[in-house]
Amino acid sequence: MKKAFLCTTALLLILVMGLSGCGGNGNTETSPSNPPASNGGTKAEGGETEPAGGEAQKVVFWTFVDAHQKFYESMAASWNESHPDKAIELEATTIPYDDMHTKLLVALQSGVGAPDLVDIEQSKFPNFMKGTPQLVSLNDMLEPELGNIVKSRVEIYSKDNTYYGIDYHVGATVMYYNKEMLDQAGINPDDIKTWADFETAGKQMLEKTGKPMITFEGNGNWSWWPAISQQGSDQVDTDGKVTVDTPVNVKTMEFFQKLVKEGVAAVAPGAGHDTEEYFGYMDSGSAASVFMPFWFMNRFTDHIPDLKGKVIIRPMPAWEEGGNRSAGMGGTATSITNQAKNPEDIKEFLAYAKLSKEGNLQIWKQLGFDPIRTDVWSDPAMKESNKFTDYFGTDIFDTLISIKDEIAPVHIREKSPEVFDAIRNKAIPEIFIDMKEPAKVLKDVQASLK
Amino acid sequence: MQIERELRHNAKRGYRLGNSQKIAPYVFVLPFLLSFAVFFAYPLVNAGVMSFQEVLPGEVSFVGLDHYRGLWNEDFGAALYNSSRYTLLTLFLLIPVPMVLAVFLNAKTMMFSNFFRSALFIPALTSVVVAGVVFRLIFGELDGALMNTILHLFGIPSQRWLYSSSLGMFALLVLAGWRWIGINILYFLSALQSIPRELYEAAEMDGAGTMRRFMRITVPLLKPITIYVVTITIYGGYAMFTESYMLWAGKPSPQNIGLTIVGYIYQQGFQYFNLGFGSAIGITLLGITLLVSVLQLTLSGMFKRED
Fold first, then answer.
1. Cross-referenced CDD domains, in alphabetical order (chain A) (predicted)?
2. Do A426 and B239 touch (CB under 8 A)?
3. Which residues, other chains included, contact A317 with Cβ-Cβ below 8 Å and sequence gap of 6+?
4. CA distances from A400 to A293, A396, A411, A421 (A)
5. pLDDT score of A231 more than 70
6. How far is A400 from chain B (nearest CA, A)?
């Protein structure tokens, strides 16, 4: 008996060690190149080690996108030039997406180790709004600018009328048409005003070329969400209540499923628009269009090189004449954590980088995003040659200006991460891959989320 | 004289104290005990406490058994089913196959056995993350993906490997086999080398064939190592996370076909920031694994007194 007990205890120990060892493998991996964690915790004042400026204040910044890091570094350099009295020493680090958000959660939860300034992706943001937000209110810097920016891009990062983050971009959803294929099928993209027109054009495409007009995501949210957002609907409402199975949402899904059944639409290979398989598929001209947010442009320039000069950007079809022709989708906010030593100084820098005209111009020039400050959209700088204008032509912002007032806000609430997963993971595959009845699927998902 | 003797006596006592057979073992195991206490026991106890709490930034409150009641849901059911199915199937894959391969590799007549040994072991050195990405491409749904190309050779049309429960599980098993068979071969090889050759010689003289020798000598004498491999395979199966995480590119798998219990902990704890609920799942997983292992060890006679 005693031996059995000893064996069981020993086994328990082995299991604990084995499980914790393996379980931690994927999610707590810390990259060795990650000193800011400890720096942020001890908050060493950069003053003593600073060779020239003497008073430069150290600001630790975490992001999960390399390009964002470069953007902030360049903004810090130009800030130091124009504000030598308030110089900062930016210590920026790029950490993989999941790791960074996990580390940030743990750092904020435990009260030590968080950076001063941090990028938080939209679908992760609600996690940071739980309980007492551990981020600094940005109201005093944002309120004077609310008239110049797309307001919904800060509202999604708010709780109880307090703003906690500023987005890089609007994420306006647009149609990317393969002009060459449209020409082959004799379709003029400017004649496509509504989704009904789109279906007609799609049938023509299928008849003439045998190829689908459009692709939808098979386990992602980017095909359905913009379409319901266009119609003023959403997956959760302002109060955070789940609204997955409202009639508009069901009707939209039924229409899209019909397009798939007709062959007008195909489910994207790899089931999403951001997969290696999909890039190859589009590159070989297998489908004539896709609608995705503005930030998807760099997938074309970087991963679908053969379509250079063949893709044009147009507004989405409306659901009825005069209806919205776009939707603001996706995004990443920059926030200041409550562990920042001098939040007021950091706010000034953040406003310079994200709210100023100069900063917004740089967001387009360096990152290829549609900046949240709409008055820069008509700036001549938007037509200057860069890899995006070379690929899509110089009329990108003309399209954006025409849909400026047709971008309805989305609701991101505490329940959102769970709702997004249920949509991506259950609803969309069942509807587009298993071809189940949308009304029933959405009703079931709605029920499971209550 | 007297003082000198006393000094020597004291020095001897001090020496004896440091060298005492009673204390020395504790000193040697101290590093392990300390790291165990800090990195395993403390987090375990803490997870136990957290599983009864609602943990929010700046607001922690006790919620009693709510999290454990919350476990009664479809997602946990799917995770439990997937993990158990994966564990069971890996047992069938990762015990007999490496055992037979090890016997071959151990045979004197086997050609190029060193080459095969290293070839089979190399996958174990590859990072699961890299392997996961490669396997995701191998199991792609387009006609050009490796697995589909192979199917075409037999006239079978392309499959959407990662969208159906059974094909997805198949992909996970192929990945598990590719990665772990080499390691298990190593365990079996080391055990095989301790079986005395005379036993086989004697059996051969008595007219026992190859199969009979394998079933009557090799398999029974490998029992201790087999039990060990079964035990680590069981908790390896239940602890599986990275493979499915990488195979579905870090996104939730369609209809949860690749959701494992550890994946569920990760989803709830870190993706939805329900640390309390995540802890409850973790504690439950510990209980399940313990139960399965005790059951298996009891059935295999590990706890029986050796006569």
1. PBP2_TMBP_like
2. no
3. A175, A192, A193, A194, A195, A197, A198, A325
4. 11, 7, 22, 30
5. yes
6. 31
Same domain, B86 and B33: no
User: Is there a contact between B266 and A27 if contact means CB atoms under 8 Å apart?
Assistant: yes
Look at A425 and B254 and tell me if their CB atoms are within 8 Å.
yes
Contact status of B235 with chain A (Cβ, < 8 Å): yes
Interface of B with A in 21-50 (CB under 8 A): 36, 39-40, 43-44
Co-location of A318 and A445 in the same domain? yes
Both tokens of residue A35?
A: 């000193």
- Sign of CA pseudo-dihedral A380, A386, A390, A392: negative
Question: Using alpha carbons only, how large is chain B's radius of gyration in Å?
Answer: 26
- Contact check, Cβ <8 Å, A421/B271: yes
pLDDT of residue A251: 96
Q: Are residues B226 and B260 in the same domain?
A: yes
Probe site for chain A from B83, B271, B307 (most A CB atoms < 10 A): B271
Domain encompassing residue B193: 70-300
Close Cβ partners of A79 (under 8 Å, ≥ 6 residues apart): A86, A87, A88, A349, A352, A353
Number of domains in chain B: 2
Weakest-pLDDT range from B59-63, B153-157, B253-257: B253-257
Between A50-64, A106-120, B22-36, the lowest mean confidence (pLDDT) is in: A50-64
Whether residues A429 and B273 touch (CB distance < 8 A) is answered with no
* Partner residue facing B254 (CB), from A275, A417, A429: A429
- By residue range, what is the domain housing residue A150? 28-164+330-382
Tell me what percent of the residues of chain B surpass a pLDDT of 70. Answer: 93
- Using CB atoms, pick whichever of B252, B286, B302 lies closest to residue A19: B286
- Cα distance between residue A143 and residue A373, in whole Å: 14
Residue A217 in contact with residue A223, Cβ under 8 Å? Answer: yes
Helix (H) or strand (E) holding B62: strand B59-62
Per-residue pLDDT of A398-434, as tens digits, reads 999 999 889 888 888 888 888 998 998 889 999 998 8
Structure ipTM: 0.71
Min Cα separation B256/chain A (Å): 7
